[in-house]
Amino acid sequence: MLKHESPDQNQARILFDLIAIGLVMAILTAVHYTNYHYEMNYHILLQFAYYLPVIYAAMRFGPAGGILSGLVITLLILPFMTHFHAMNPSAIYTQWVEIGLINVIGWLTGFLTGQERRAKRKYQIALTVQKELVEKLKKEGLERERLEEEIRQTERLTALGHMSSGLAHEIRNPLGIMKVSIQLLAQDKVGDGVVSEYCRVLLEECERLNRLVSDFLSFARPKELARKRMSLGKLLDEGVNLLNPALRQHGIVLKQVRGQVDKQEVEFDPDQMKQVILNIILNAIDAQGEGGVIQLEGVNREGFVGFAVSDEGPGISPDAMPYIYDPFFTTKEKGTGLGLSVVHRILDLHGGKIVAANRRERGVRVEILLPLS
Q: How far apart are CA 126 and CA 128, in angstroms?
């Protein structure tokens, strides 16, 4: 992993390198001039040391660094070459060749360093593009899995809906006869406490079965959409008004977070969306039990707008999470397991979606999203 320097750190490092290169050149030149009386071989050997600052300047600053440092060394050593009397023509020729090599090596090292840096930048760009492609493919894979799961869920709901429709009608007729018979029996035996108690229990169970059958029918044959354009805030207000008695009964405070999303107008079937609100908030009330706060807020996602309900209940176990939208799957003692299935079906007809997840602290957050139109 590359370590990125701040502009101040980079500027300080450049200044330090320039000072170091200049200092080495100055020391080598000073040694040349202060030891003027030494033989030529000494100065030829000392001149090899100029390769060090030239190569470092080229590696640090590229071709410009190599060329400039070579020219500076040439200017520094030129007076020495022209005034050193101990040099014969062969030595002078050797010195000019040496200076030429210093400049050529400076340029060549800088050129190769520049090529290496360009190749490294290209590699970093290619690596970044590759990472972005991998992330994109990963997101597309997750989205494909989600869509495939939604398709399978819709197929299961459709198949079960056809079966439930016929079954619900077959159950409702004898159920109605049983209910009327029990009510007549209770009227005849109004003075018998035991019979009256049994009749009360039977009527409660009949009522529960009737609700189950109604859920079957809602799930199996959802009504045709009667779309209407309405603000999200108005829909939530109307839905909450229907739930106030249940909230008071359980001592729960419903905290509504107002925002710009409430003013957003969406096209939907108001009656069916109220059913969605009722199912989601009633689930939150059942999960929370007595007391506490349920939060209701508008949400805005890319291409979608809707609301989120957050409760303070125990949450959903990881094992149960994949099955919460399946018909008849429930963790409640007296639940039908059709509430979220009906919600999923209604949202599917609207082109929307439902997202449920456990909150970090406790409870569940359920988002209901409708497409913007």
A: 5
Beta strands in the chain (DSSP E): 228-231, 253-257, 265-268, 293-301, 304-310, 353-358, 364-371
Gyration radius of the chain over CA positions: 42
Euclidean distance between CA atoms 372 and 58, whole angstroms: 59
Cβ-Cβ contacts under 8 Å for 196 (sequence gap 6 or more): 186, 189, 190
First to last CA, the chain: 45
Give the separation between CA 112 and CA 107, rounded to whole angstroms: 9
Q: How many CB atoms lie within 10 A of CB 108?
A: 15
Task: Quickly list H helices, 48-88.
Answer: 51-83
DSSP E strands, 15-126: none
CB 280 within 8 A of CB 366: yes
Instruction: Give ∠ CA 210-213-215 in degrees, rounded to 5.
Output: 110
Distance CA 358, CA 365 (A): 6
Closest of 348, 290, 354 to residue 161, by C-alpha: 348
CB of 291 closer than 8 Å to CB of 250: yes
pLDDT above 60 for 86: no
**CB under 8 Å to 38, separation ≥6 — which residues?**
none
Residue-wise pLDDT tens digits, 305-322: 999 999 988 888 888 888
Task: List, in order, residues 6 or more apart from 31 with CB less than 8 Å away.
Answer: 46
**Cα–Cα distance for residue pair 330/117, rounded to 1 Å:** 62
Compute the distance between CA of residue 325 and CA of residue 323 in angstroms, rounded to an integer: 6
Structure pTM? Answer: 0.49
Give the H/E segment covering residue 342. Answer: helix 339-350
Mean pLDDT of the 285-291 span: 86
